[in-house]
Design brief:
The chain has helices at 5-20, 27-35, 59-65, 99-116, 140-151, 161-172, 191-200, 240-264, 277-287; strands at residues 40-47, 69-75, 80-86, 120-126, 130-137, 178-183, 202-209, 221-226, 231-236, 269-272. By secondary structure, the protein is of the alpha/beta class.
């Protein structure tokens, strides 16, 4: 991770220039339009009509009347944006660079655009549990606080931190909040809580995938670090069986992720570690 302040400022400045220059008219407009009206205060419920957002279904009234109802909201002037950021052991992994560095640059861009839109920005860092919660605030100070904590994050343990983070979000945020979940999603047991959280908040999962997770290159014997056991284990990358087990291991988590999104009616973003994320984000925001 980057710990040098000068390096941090250069990376932040690079992101600001990218947002202000190349993508000023496109990215900012798409970002603003995609989330305009998502910060809401509940007003009343009415019967469901074709075209209504299923995320706004009022499950209590629907169950009581046996007729589908949706919640109606009044738009608030500002939106609260939360970045749920994975710092578990698996994100400190990567072929060319650790995923955590790529994720830090991505979260900085999202943080910058949130502050530019004069919305509140908060963050929640998690590994096998919730490690740090930054309360939503406005202004550049809030943005720099998120970036600083991200790039100085230490290797966490594995585990079901996504579920813990979503449960914490539900418990602490009563008003509808826009939440970016930035993770490699190499976890399980979060499907149910993801579904529950999606009914109360606007969730956008951003899955970071490294090329090594899809194909294990033949590089002889390589050491793999087990963060939970704090030990190194040797892996024979030339073994056909090891290649098969490697691919199946990551595909298992990918299938769980895809089914979880389908169950919750959520559309996510998938980015390859080290790739240019801007075109993918632009396309997502434009079509949202």
């Amino acid at each position: 991770m980057v710990t040098d302040t000068a390096t941090l400022l250069r990376k932040v400045r690079k992101i600001e220039i990218l947002a202000k220059g190349k993508s000023k008219e496109v990215f900012a407009g798409a970002y603003h339009s995609a989330f305009r009206g998502r910060g809401m205060t509940f007003r009343e419920s009415r019967e469901y009509q074709a075209g209504d957002d299923v995320r706004d279904i009022d499950w209590n009234v629907t169950a009581r009347t046996n007729v589908p109802h949706v919640k109606q909201f009044e738009e608030e002037k500002e939106l609260t944006v939360m970045l749920l950021i994975d710092t578990s052991a698996s994100v400190f992994f990567g072929q060319a660079d650790q995923k955590i560095n790529y994720m830090a640059e991505l979260s900085a861009l999202l943080a910058y655009n949130t502050i530019r839109e004069q919305n509140k920005l908060g963050a929640l860092f998690f590994s096998d549990k919730v490690d740090l919660y930054l309360r939503p605030d406005k202004g550049s100070k809030a943005m720099l606080r998120v970036i600083r904590e991200h790039i100085t994050a230490q290797t966490g343990k594995g585990g079901n931190g996504i579920a813990a983070a979503l449960q914490f979000l539900i418990s602490t945020h009563r008003k509808r909040t826009l939440c970016f979940i930035i993770s490699d999603f190499i976890q399980e047991s979060y499907s149910d809580i993801l579904n529950l959280a999606s009914r109360r908040h606007d969730l956008i999962p951003i899955k970071i995938v490294d090329p090594l997770e899809k194909t294990l290159p033949s590089s002889g014997m390589i050491p793999l670090y087990d963060a939970e056991q704090n030990t190194f284990k040797w892996l024979d990358t030339g073994s056909i069986e090891n290649k098969k087990n490697w691919a199946e291991y990551f595909e298992k988590y990918n299938q769980y992720y895809q089914l979880s999104l389908l169950k919750s009616g959520i559309t996510g973003i998938e980015l390859q570690n080290g790739s240019d994320y801007l075109p993918v984000l632009l396309n997502f925001f434009k079509n949202r």
